Amino acid sequence: MSSSTTSENNATSSNDMMNGRKTWEGCSVLLDINDGDRLVFARLSNAASKLKSGNKNYSLQPLIGCAFGSVFQAESGPQGPFLSHSLPSSLQGNNTEEIKDGQVIVESRDNRALIDNNTAQSLTGDDIEAMRRFLRVDTLSLLLSMANVSSNSDVLVVDMVGGLITGAVAERLGGIGFVCNSYLGKSPYSMDIVRIFNFSDEICKRILRSPISNLLSQKESPEQILQDANVCNVESQSNDQMGASVSMEEICNSSENVISDLGAENTNNTKIPAKRVCKAAKAGEKAPQEIIDSWKENGFSSLIIAASEMDTWTLVKDLLPLLSNSAPFAIYHQYLQPLATCMHNLQLEKMAIGLQISEPWLL
Question: Does Nucleus count among this protein's keywords (predicted)?
Fold first, then answer.
């Protein structure tokens, strides 16, 4: 058994391993087992990460600190099975070299001799239909391009594909701007795929969540904000008494520690530095009210919808007023009819211009 590690993370970090394109403890990797026989997502750690192959368990600790794309060989030793770092055979272009009887035989690997006899397509109609239910790389790239996602933008997304769009937008923003993962009802949609991107803390802070009802509601007054969020009141007190700026994230995560520090300060009449445990930023925190008010006032710079289980026209009609003037939007659906209906209604209501329906070129 051999395995190789790959990653889809392009975010930068102060960590030398991340800058050097090497794995680090806690990062997510994609393991290619036996040259495509099996693909497994794994999170690297010193002790807990293990890979099961057959009836053997292999520790993934040797993968930490290695370059992405490294090849490992499964071996057995006195202490049990383990993965050893091995060097892959050298490849030159599209050709492979093999030494036989003292002579080098070059095997060409290209499609110059391929004959199109309509038998190369092995996918059935059901297979193609199943593929259309998921976002492919060409579809995702098309959505990002049509929505004009770039840094210093505030992007509104309705992501019902596991967080793939949310992660792709956050990666394109590069820590400058916000992506708001919105949802209907009280339960947010899954964002499990975002964890696989290996985002830095700075990018994770830019991924926020908010129910659509909060975005559509009227802007709250300062009095309502103070009544609904007691944490904000604690923040104001700490700013006045300690003379220090405290971020909303620190207060929401450790409000009890803030109150305890204030009590100690009042008792001793001396300023004691607040000691807080710095936790790693978590993607998908609830959007603060001040940021929501800013979105309501200025509007989002673009909108991406991937919610095939909802009525496309109803959703678009409710969300378009949240965009700024001339803001682009893109909608994904695996069927043509919902998009055609939505496009027709948008034209009748004169709510948008420059509408088009595009199909990815990969079929």
Answer: yes
